[in-house]
Amino acid sequence: MNSLQVWLAIVGGLVLAAVVGHGAWQTRRAGGKTRLPKPSAADAASPGAPDAALAAVAPQPLHQEPSFDPDHAPTEPIPLEDAPVAASVEAIEQRLVGVPAALNVPVRRPAAVSRIDPLIDAVARLVPEQPLSGETVLAHWPPSRRAGGKPFLIEGCNSQTGEWETPVAGQTCSELRAGLQLANRLGAVNEIEYSEFVQIIQRFAEPLSAEAEFPDMLDVVARARSLDRVAVHHDAQLAMRLTARQGQWPVSWIQQHAARHGFVSGPVPGKLILPGREEDAPPVLALVFDAQAALAEDPDQSWVSEMSLVFDVPQTPQAEQPFNAWCASGQALAIALDADVNDDEGRALNAGAFALIREDLDGLYAKLAEYELAAGSPAARRLFS
């Protein structure tokens, strides 16, 4: 056998081996494909039953019932990506019914405009010699609408509609009125504040050729003190203190976890707020922590060990369930940040405490409504401010 025949034999052997190998690879490839079994008649009749093959590989969800019980709290803080998106309050008490399973960010609506209310205002009339244009009224508008610690409002009676409203350019006012708020959280109007109000309104009325009529000072002060007593006995601001169990939290971590539940930056450093359903309305909740830590250049290197979740009761309507939001937000943050939950005096808050708080709130809401100061109403927001 010459060399040419030897090379041809070698090449033929290689080609034969390649053909055999390719056939074996194709057979193995075809055998490696597993078909999902077709559903049986019984399976087809039960569309809700999961496919057996999929159920075998489907991940099983991890469920942990949220609780304020420190014995069942996680030993390590929950990372942001693993933190619960929303917390149910069912673990607090079965009586807390109707609690939302999530803290959804609501669609916001325009806020009600503050109006003079004889219930909480001392009202002075300003009667001009002739109707006044909005431009004329605004040209003599008082530079400050406060008398001491009390705000006041000015309204005009629209000559066309007869409605009381804030004067605007292009409209005509047949009459004006000014209302001094009788009380707020600083206390009742006193004689000095009322005298200052009278002087401001008289200076406002003179260039408008309007005659000002004021209620009697003694009557105003007496009404103010009576209203202040009602406010003092029916005011409530609840604070839930969250304290780190282990070490401290970076400010950035607090901000990230709070943002997951709808909180945004507040008007001052160290204050995150949960906005209300109305534009420019007071916040439903406020999460407050050290302002100096919040001012740090690097929030990852600024640490705090305590913060407070505050609920200003008279500022939000009961129908919006602010108490449920307070409980759910506090519970979610306590779980995510591994925090103890106490009241503002350091006493532990448990399921029974929250149930009692709810009962007290229901009574408070009813009392406020009796006085025509329902929580979240413009009058209540002004009085409890």
Automatic annotation (TrEMBL):
Region (Disordered) residue ranges read 28-51
Q: Which keywords are on file for this protein?
A: Membrane, Transmembrane, Transmembrane helix
Residue ranges spanning the membrane: these are: 6-25
Annotated Low complexity bias:
37-51
Q: SUPFAM superfamilies from the entry?
A: Cell-division protein ZipA, C-terminal domain
Record-level GO BP terms: cell septum assembly
Keyword Nucleus assigned: no
**Is the Transmembrane keyword given for this protein?**
yes
| InterPro entries hit by this protein | ZipA_FtsZ-bd_C, ZipA_FtsZ-bd_C_sf
Positions of the ZipA C-terminal FtsZ-binding domain: 234-361
Which stretches are annotated as coiled coil?
none
**Protein name stated in the entry:** ZipA C-terminal FtsZ-binding domain-containing protein
